[in-house]
Amino acid sequence: MTAVLRARGLGKRYRKHWALSDCTLDVPAGRVVGLVGPNGAGKTTLLNLASGQMAPTAGSIEVLGAQPAESPAQLARVGYVAQDTPTYSGLTVAEHLKLGARLNPSWDDALARDRIATLGLDPRRRAGRLSGGQRAQLALTVGIAKRPELLILDEPVAALDPLARREFMQALMEAAVEQRLSVVLSSHLVSDLERTCDYLIVLVDSRVQVAGDVDELLASHHRLTGPRRDPSRLPADQHVLTESHTDRQTSLIVRSDGPLHDPSWTVGRISLEDLVLAYMSRSGGAGARPALEALR
Amino acid sequence: MIWLTLRQFRVQAAIMGGALVALAALLALTGPGMADDYDRGIAACEAGGDCAVFTRQFFDDHQALYQTLVAALMCLPGAIGLFWGAPLITRELETGTHRLVWNQTITRTRWLVVKLGLVGLTATVSGALAGLMLSWWAGPLEKAGAEQFPRMTPLMFDSRGIVPLGYAMFGFVLGVTAGVLLRRTLTAMAVTLAVFVAVQLAVPAWIRPYYIPAKVTVTKMTSENIEGLMFTDRREVKVRLKQEPGIWELSSRTIDSSGRAVSSLPSSLATGACAPPTRAGNAANAKERCFSEITRLGYRQKLTFQPAGRFWPFQWIETGLFLVLSAALTAFCFYWTRRRVS
């Protein structure tokens, strides 16, 4: 299967600060990919690089096998719903559809109209007078009706209330299934992604901490509890992510590709949120802040 | 993209259209009547011989409206830069809509070509129309005011002929450039205004006089070519030469026998040869004596000027200069938007 997104040593620097560094990824096609990390971790930078909004400082990135935004043909294959789902506040809903139709040869007008009707949006209403949720839906409609192969969304639900969030994610999932879209979606909340994503990338402090199929990730990470001991004496194929100790007990989250044989451990499954939190708090120094962000 | 640009631009375009129509109506209503008055007046006064009184009177009568229109035309390119140029891209950057439009099936370059092309063309055409309309209307005033306000002089030159076209294009591109560099509409507007005013002051003062080397004449002072000779309390002397009508005087100064500029003639003149005549009868004699004494001492008047006939060459040169500036700024906008803005 071809990769929708392939990055090799990808990095982006703003003046002296690296917003993204040494990012190597292979994201398979046909997946719903969650990109999760605290604010300022480099999620937007990675997505902007993927959509060709900016050029990398180091390394290379390929999207659907080509340079991002290198040609109109490539632009047509990638849909992008930017952070805060921008729309032209002075233009009406119908004018946004017209904009889409004028600027995209691949535009599916019937699909766009259907979605607007289903959402119950008044086509004559200006985008500036829509609620946040409706605006996000409008931006999503423009993104979907372009009929891309890959749809990238940057924190699309960050500003929405819980109900609008759920409706948006539902609409996104339906479109992804119907059109067999690949989707890359970022969020600083694991809960937004938990129900929808089957592939996860955790980005903390401008670096990719872990990336992989959600089921495989859950199968290879475990919570171990047992009598207190030194975690450095674990077998070589078990990597400790977090450890906490009381006087008698040690509790670890470990990644292990092989089976766990030591009978003195009680082995438990961990949730996706625990997994993400483990990676966030592991990354040096910044432990407290990302954890707080993720819990919010 | 053309549709989107026109849709985003329609309010500004309507305002400009309305302003131009209003200007055209005003000029069309007052212009022909004014031209008739001038022709009749000139015919009447030429029969009497001297038209100086009539032309002065005619110019004064229409001066208020004339100056207002000149001022309005001077402001137009600045307004275009402020309200069309500066927000053109910054508004998108501020609201984030550039991320929406740049992710449709259209490259950034094409997006910018259409936006800059359409709005820039409208700006240029507006400037050209306003300039040509005013030139047509002000024809009689130009003739009447040839001595007081020659069209070669700053302000008159700036609002006449084809230069408003160059200014309008430059103002617009300047606004866009400030916008992409600063990325804030208000700051960009302020900077556009400041730079535009600075350019409008700098060009007539330091650049325009040198488009073609100025003509220099050195003349002896005689009672015929001197319009006025004044001795001030601070021992300065001021000389006004009678001039060819319509020239743009760059400098006029008195030089001594070695060619150096002097600020005053010897004060002995004021009490000697050039002392006020005691009896009214020999005033003409006294004047003659004064000037022959000045000439004997070697003082002459040096006049540096651009002749009236250079009006159109200067118009073309200045328009060309502003078009080249605009082209350079446009190229910069493309570079910057493609490379630096995201």
Descriptive notes:
The complex is a heterodimer of chains A (296) and B (342). Chain A has 10 helices and 13 strands. Chain A is elongated. Chain A is α/β, with parallel strands linked by helices and 296 residues long. Chain A has a 6-stranded mixed β-sheet with strand order 5-6-7-3-8-9, with helices on both faces. A 4-stranded antiparallel β-sheet of chain A has the order 11-12-10-13. In chain A, strands 2-1-4 form a 3-stranded antiparallel β-sheet, with helices on one face. Chain A is 33% helix and 30% strand. Chain A has 2 domains: 3-214, Rossmann fold, CATH 3.40.50.300; 220-295, no CATH class. In chain A, helix 6 links the parallel strand 6 and strand 7. By secondary structure, chain B is mainly α. Chain B has 2 domains: 2-212 and 311-339, no CATH class; 215-308, no CATH class. Helices cover 65% and strands 9% of the residues of chain B. Chain B has helices at 2-48, 52-95, 97-101, 108-137, 139-144, 163-182, 185-207, 268-271, 283-296, 311-339; strands at 215-220, 226-231, 237-241, 248-255, 300-306. In chain B, the strands form 2 sheets. Chain B has a 3-stranded antiparallel β-sheet with strand order 1-5-4, with no helix packed on it. In chain B, strands 2-3 form a two-stranded antiparallel sheet. In chain B, helix 6 runs parallel beside helix 10 (311-339). Chain B is elongated, with a radius of gyration of 26 Å. The two termini of chain B are 19 Å apart. At the A-B interface, helix 2, strand 5, helix 3 and helix 5 of A face helix 1 and helix 3 of B.
